């Protein structure tokens, strides 16, 4: 993973607004991120946890 501290969607930081919605920009390669948004892991992380 290249990015372990920020989320792929929105600003990637914990914030008090609508984080990820249809109008929000996302990162170009979600597979390089640990988090999808400020608190939720990406599908790749869930898969690694489930298969461990």
UniProtKB/TrEMBL annotation:
The keyword Ubl conjugation does not apply. InterPro entries: GDSL_lipolytic_enzyme (IPR050592), SGNH_hydro_sf (IPR036514). It comes from the Eukaryota. Keywords: Signal. The keyword Acyltransferase does not apply. This is GDSL esterase/lipase.
